Amino acid sequence: MPKSVVNLLNEPEILDYHKTEQLLTEGNIVPNVFFAVGYASRCWKDDGTFDTQKALKVANELCAYIRLIKEGKING
Asked: Is the model's pLDDT at 76 over the cut of 70?
């Protein structure tokens, strides 16, 4: 995993089957939010259906990330 502020995969918001790789790996809040939005925009499959699991993965990581910011564990 690239250098990251914190390992989000161990946070309670992350579902067990999403603990494969961390998406939000930047050392700053703004790039992580932009990355999350970009990743979420790719949650549509080629056949036009929405990939709910992909969207849940990024949403849960973002929720964990925001909670850690609020708790003062990430300075950004």
From this structure: no
